[in-house]
Amino acid sequence: MSEKNEKRLAMFEQIITKGTDDPFVLYGRAMELRSLERLDESLAAFDEVATRFPDYVPTYLMAGQVAEALGRRDEARSWYDRGLDVSASRDPHAHSELTAARGALSE
User: Fold this and answer.
1) Alpha helices in the chain (DSSP H)
2) What is the domain range of residue 25?
3) Contact 95/87 with Cβ under 8 angstroms?
4) 107: pLDDT strictly greater than 80
5) How far apart are CA 26 and CA 72, in angstroms?
6) How many CA atoms lie less than 13 Å away from 73 in the CB half-sphere?
7) Which range (9-13, 54-58, 75-79, 103-107) has the least confidence?
8) Which long-range contacts (CB under 8 A, 24 or more apart) does 8-12 make?
9) pLDDT digits 0-9 by tens, 29-77
10) pTM here?
């Protein structure tokens, strides 16, 4: 599986190098980094997605989960809170998932 992830990561990075305005490409790179367990890089990549495309809702749940995996509870909480703000009127399903993740973090 790692070889497949490495190939997808290289594909995403090539597209990004050429220039893209597609949030999914940056998000995909962040997810591949997560799959490869390169968590610090993944979190930085999610931060880039959130900076460039703050309305791209899936970013916040995934970034929060990566921050949790790194043991950064306060940072995870911040990601979830930001996601709750963004998803409130846009995506009820994502809002529900973020609410559950935020609640589980508080336990």
Assistant:
1) 2-18, 23-35, 39-52, 58-69, 73-87, 92-106
2) 2-106
3) yes
4) no
5) 22
6) 5
7) 103-107
8) 8/32, 9/33, 9/36
9) 999 999 999 999 999 999 999 999 999 999 999 999 999 999 999 999 9
10) 0.90
* Residue in this structure with the two tokens 């509870």, named with its chain if needed: 73
User: What are φ and ψ of residue 52, in 5° steps?
Assistant: -80, -30
Q: What is the CATH number of the domain that holds 60?
A: 1.25.40.10
Helices marked H in 53-88:
58-69, 73-87
* Closest by Cα among 37, 29, 18 to 53: 29
Going from the C-alpha of 20 to that of each of 2, 24, 31, 55, the distances in angstroms are: 25, 10, 17, 16
* Contact (CB, 8 A) for 46 and 72: no
Number of domains composing the chain:
1
Distances (CA, A) of 35 to 32, 43, 62, 78, 91: 5, 12, 11, 22, 25
